[in-house]
Every structure is written in structure tokens, then in C-alpha cells.
Amino acid sequence: MANTTNFSVRMDRDIKKQCESLYGELGMTLTTAINVFLRQSIRAGGFPFDVRLDTPNQETIAALLEAEQIVNDPTTKRYADVEEALRELKK
Known about the structure:
The protein contains four helices and no strands. It has helices spanning 13-25, 30-44, 58-72, 82-90.
């Protein structure tokens, strides 16, 4: 038998149930899934997936600023509903 040890993890009860169900469908226990994650972390030298803040790129920032200007521009044409806007587009 492998040299094993125990450790405890506190987690949201619903998350645990969802993960147990998910990994059960894959034919493994939550313990096995955690071990897979830890082994992949060792192989990758860190998280085995990207962990980062979702910061928008310059193009997205420019689009957001443009949208904000349009919303705040009182001369921008307004539509009562989507159908009206679509009719205008089809002209």
C-alpha cells in the first residue's frame, strides 16, 4: 500500500455534492479527483489551468468606453423595443 496521509478540506456542501456527482459519472471518487488535480499541479509546476483576473484587453476597453459615450449622448437615436430597432436596420 502507498504511503498515504489524511487532510481535511472545508468546502460548500452543495459544491461537494455536485463534484461527487460529476466525478462519480466519470467513475472516480472526489478523493481520486483531488489526487488527480494535485498530481497535475506537480507536473505543471503550479495550477494545471490558468488562474488569472479577467481583465479586458484594450479593444474591449475601447468598446466599453464607446458604448458608455453612446448611452450618455442625448442625440443618440433611441428605440422603444428591439423590433423597432430591427426595422430601422432593415431600411
